[in-house]
UniProtKB/TrEMBL annotation:
This is GST N-terminal domain-containing protein. The lineage of its organism: Eukaryota, Fungi, Dikarya, Basidiomycota, Agaricomycotina. One of its GO terms (cellular component) is cytoplasm. It comes from the Eukaryota. InterPro entries: Glutathione-S-Trfase_C_sf (IPR036282), Glutathione_S-Trfase (IPR040079), Glutathione_S-Trfase_N (IPR004045), GST_Omega/HSP26 (IPR050983), Thioredoxin-like_sf (IPR036249). CDD domains: GST_N_family (cd00570).
Amino acid sequence: MAPDASNRITVYVATESPFSHRVTYALEETKIPHDPVWIDLFNKPDWFRQNVHGVMKVCSSFSHPLALANHAHSTVQKVPYLVHGGPQLHEDEEPGPGSVRIPESLVILEYLADVFPTSGLLPADPVLRAKARLFIQSVETKFIPAFVGFLFMGAPVHAILGAIDVLQSFLPAEGFVVGTWSIADATFAPFFLRLETLLKNGLGLYDERAGKEAHAALHSERFARIQTWITDNLARPSLKQTWDEEHYIQKYMQRLDIARKTGTFAPGLDIPANLKQK
């Protein structure tokens, strides 16, 4: 059984992470009370590993089955990471034994939609819910691989533009993915904003000519509908509250500097040797 919806929600997030941004955007949109705890991705604190993720080592003593289910994630130290139930948490504090703990942005979004069914995170209509999930699946399987490939691996521009074509095809003539705003929009908007920011500022490990081509294409008639969609998202106070472009650029440059020294942009994402100096 899920904890009572009046219990505290703590979400461990990183400002530069589009996966974290999905969750903070959704929480701000619905005004679900929550307490963010900010994590430095470059230097994750010991307490996060020991007191938050580390508590999974003794998860068999917990009454909630999700504690046991998340044991496999305990050494990964992923953000976002949601704790639901128990008192308000601060840095260095351990979640209580009856709390639900969930990694993975999409799982968190679905969980919030289920626990708070009147929040508007997903529509009540099963057909529209199916459309939202199909859109989300396309973001995960088509856009994100193309996003990573183009920005960090030197992949050709046509792949990412093609992925955006697919996502744009889901959009109705006006409004959001399923008409009204939902977690489908929260899933994609943080990534699209980061793509726009990096292309606009010439930041990334892509070929300069390809970057200019991608930026021009995104602002052409071909992608007029998706530009209207992102403008509609940016008009929402919840996105304004959770998106700081200058801060993101600063964090990106820090991460890029580390990546050039280590050869790794993120766990599992090694930079090709020929792109390290871009």
